[in-house]
Amino acid sequence: MQDVNPADSDDVLGEVARSNSADVDQAVTAAKAAYAEWAATPMPARGDVIRRVGGLLEREKDSLSQLMTREMGKTLKEARGDVQEGIDFAYFMAGQSRAPVGDTIPSELPRKFSLTMRHPIGIVGLITPWNFPIAIPTWKMWPALLAGNCVVLKAAEDTPLCAQRLVELVSEAGLPAGVVNLVQGTGEEAGAALVAHPDVRAISFTGSLETGKLIAAECGRQMKRYSMELGSKNVTIVMPDADLDLAVEGIAWGAFATSGQRCTATSRVVSLHPEFADALVAKAESYKVGPGSDETVDLAPLINRTQRDRVLEYIRVGKHDDGATLLTGGQVLDEGVLSKGNYIAPTVFTDATPAMRIAQEEIFGPVTTVLPVPDLDAAIAAANSTQYGLSASIYTNDMTAAMRAVTELEFGIVYVNAPTIGAEVQMPFGGMKSTGNGFREAGPHAMDEFSEWKAVSIDFSSRLQKAQFQPGE
Ligand code: UN1
After folding, report:
1. Domain residue spans in the chain?
2. What is d(CA 394, CA 238) in angstroms, rounded to the nearest whole number?
């Protein structure tokens, strides 16, 4: 497979192997061979390896960010943030390696001691997207490793070299061979083989709802665990009393950072503020568009031509099928230095209603849609009107409105006076409804994705004690 710079179609980073089911089988076999020893390694020792990878990521932060911008397109600042997320989570998880992992629970019987402990799942498959080429693999890998599992990572086909560098650093940190294994290639081939492999006991997937459903169906057939981080249609509510400058700055950042290619991107704005839409347009039109390697650029290219065309199709749908009003953007930018990349101008629609496709479907591009509403009840109803529920926010100084949003929005992540993007690694990350299946990544909760609970009881009475029976029965 060719690995191409999204900002420059002449810049080919390399040819990358396309793993097939035999490669996946080899990776799983290596993981199985390493499992017993890794699972028996004390958790603080596992945490030490993760801490050392954190240090190596710090050492390589600059080189990895450069590679990421070249391979995936996002701006250098954002690439540094992506690597930093992996570093932060490595240190967080290393700390967790010495934190309590279970409870002691009183027994109803004398001389009986009960506790809970975590148990690894075994071999776990991680399938990761291209939009956070370092951060998302680390969100999955650190807790999977800390819990004592061995890992097969199927990296996104658009960012194979970032994944390879990450795995090289894991190995340099001293992780025993076979504990982490990398396969490259397509979802249809390598991904499907990993999901179908009978020795892989859990799949952790971040990607589209469509693919998530296929994976869930296969995992269901085999009764294996699956955790899903799927699409979303995130929303910000702008109340009439909001600090307008703050709201516009935050919403532009939420909508256009990473060219809207985040599962947390602000792709809808439910507005009660009469001046908001025009102010957002002015901000969007001030954006400098160009290659992510230029530190002065605000908006970098989309990942590839297919994705660019998909976004253009949504813009067509917004204009023609939905009948929303296009306020700015909507076109390909291909003049001068932009001619070799996949650029779309920052795009703002307004006069949208909740049922429109551009207000319902994930676009994954620099497009946001304003839905004007009359009051807070309508705002919350509109915000909750999609099948997704990852990230939402509200701009207001009215405590009642803020607290109603916090309690009534059906989203896994809610911000007040902040954008929908920018989650921190110590907080649980995940969504409600079709965004996921109940698991949360990041934070201490990430361990639930990758471990089983074991209930242990130790009877030291030296006689048969029967739970639920009266004495003498
Ligand atoms: C994603 O787009 O899948 O909250 C992850 C954020 C980032 C992570 C996004 N910290 O926007």
Report:
1. 2-230+436-457, 235-416
2. 6
State whether residue 263 is helix, strand or coil: coil
Residue 126 CB–ligand 1 contact under 6 Å: no
Q: Which fold has domain 235-416?
A: Aldehyde Dehydrogenase; Chain A, domain 2 (3.40.309)
Does 263 participate in catalysis according to the annotation?
Answer: yes
Mutation test residue for ligand 1: of 256, 262, 362, the one with most atoms within 8 Å of CB: 262
Instruction: Output DSSP code: residue 470.
Output: P
pTM over the 0.90 mark: yes
How far apart are alpha carbons 390 and 235 in whole angstroms?
9
Is the pLDDT at 472 greater than 90? The verdict is: no
Compute the distance between CA of residue 53 and CA of residue 294 in angstroms, rounded to an integer: 29
At 422-463, the pLDDT tens digits run 999 999 999 999 999 999 999 999 999 999 999 999 999 999
Ligand 1 contact, 263 CB (< 6 A) = yes
Output phi, psi for 371, to 5 deg: -115, 105
Q: How far is CA 467 from CA 53, 115, 473, in A?
A: 47, 16, 11
pLDDT digit string, tens, across residues 135-188:
999 999 999 999 999 999 999 999 999 999 999 999 999 999 999 999 999 999
CA distances from 194 to 86, 215, 416 (A): 24, 10, 40
Which among 60, 263, 362, 449 is annotated as catalytic? 263
At residue 436, the pLDDT reads 97
> Is the domain defined by 2-230+436-457 classed in CATH 3.40.605.10?
yes
Label residue 471 by pLDDT band (50, 70, 90).
confident
Encode pLDDT of 365-391 as tens digits.
Answer: 999 999 999 999 999 999 999 999 999
pLDDT exceeds cutoff 90 at 360: yes
* Strand partners for 349: 326, 369
pLDDT score recorded for residue 432: 98
Contact 417, 395 (CB under 8 A): yes
Nearest Cα residue to 200 out of 125, 310, 300: 125
- 85 labelled catalytic: no
Is the beta carbon of 55 within 6 A of some atom in ligand 1?
no
Q: Which tens digits make up the pLDDT trace of 324-347?
A: 999 999 999 999 999 999 999 999
Ligand 1 mean position, distance from CA 116 (Å) = 32
Is 395 touching ligand 1 by the criterion CB < 6 Å? Answer: no
The total number of residues written for the chain in this structure = 473
Closest CA to 168 of 62, 66, 56: 56
257 CA: nearest ligand 1 atom: 11
What are 235's two structure tokens? 């929303």
The active-site residue, picked from 78, 85, 189, 229, is 229
